[in-house]
Amino acid sequence: MTLPDDGLDDGPGPDPGDEPGARRLALVMHAAFFLLLSASFARFLIRHPGEPRTPWITVLSVLLALLYVLSPAFARPRPQLLWLAAVVATWVVLVVLAPSFAWCSVPLLYTGLRTLPTRAAVLLVAFLTGLVVVAQLRLPHGFDPTLVLAPPAVAAIATAVFLHTQRQTERQRALIDDLVRTRRELAATERREGALAERQRLSMEIHDTLAQGLSSQRMLLQAADRTWEADPEAARRHTRTAADIAARGLAETRRFVNDLAAPQFDGGARLEDALRALAASETAEGTGAPVLFHLDGVPVALPDGARAALLRIAQGALANVREHAGAATAALTLSYLGDQVVLDVADDGRGFAPGAPPSPAGGRGHGLPAMRARVRQLGGTLTIESAPGEGTVVSVCIPLAPQ
Prior knowledge:
By secondary structure, this protein is α+β, with helices and mostly antiparallel strands. It is 64% helix and 9% strand. A five-stranded mixed β-sheet has the order 1-2-3-5-4. The protein is rod-shaped and about 135 Å long.
């Protein structure tokens, strides 16, 4: 009599974190165990009615069922081993008294494989299989070679399949852990690269504006000091020029402070409102090209991170237009295209070759690495269309989560 039921591979108690499908599978397997136990008990009563061992068989069957039901109470490793020992011992006594209970070895086999270390589990499987063979040979139907060969073969196949599946699961879990760890490392690297690019952009901007302005003021004030008595009018001209440079430096300083501060969206302000205000501010300052704002599509709510990143990208792109493009006009266009939002910053300035290396003096495009880092963090793309004398278009496309 063989025991070919390798579907009973779940143990007596499902893990709390199992998915609903795993829980349903566990219920089916538990039902199969009780079905085997009930069938073995019914077979004994039918074949051996009124024997003196019947009360013992009844008590042991009820005890085995209770132990199986109480398995969730033995979830910790040491109590679980004690529980497994009690279940196996009860089953062994039942098989010695009534060989038909050997059918219940199938769920016990998988319980042992899942609970014990590999070597101990294999030893338990060998013990259970040997006891099944002895119990089958005790049945009064004559010698049958399949009773000796079939149980070990079935047990060997079931054990090999279980161990192989377990190893595959462990490999997949390790691979998932590696992927999650690598993803976190990549995200941290991108954040560091974005911060370094932003620092580099600000250091170059400060050097090209504030530092040079302060140096010019110093030289002008020194010249005014030298000529104050000999040529007061020239000294005053130097002083007024230094004051004008200081005013421009103050404006640049305020712009840097505004760029470094986190974008504010008070009262749930929308990105299009912030961009419209940015365009108006750039136009009102009169230090660069007038900026026009255009909205295309139906606006949708954006995450705070996406709103802040797009506003910062617009600020950086307009700073490049103001300081390097020599443009007559510029345009901000925000487009909502269903599953993505697109920001375009265009100018009619002198343009540049996107593939050319930056000039040693710190030419146009110092903010591009920072822009690319922001876009990567949002899973979007950044493209630049430009050519010398033909203006520039910076386009950012950010995917939107399904609504």
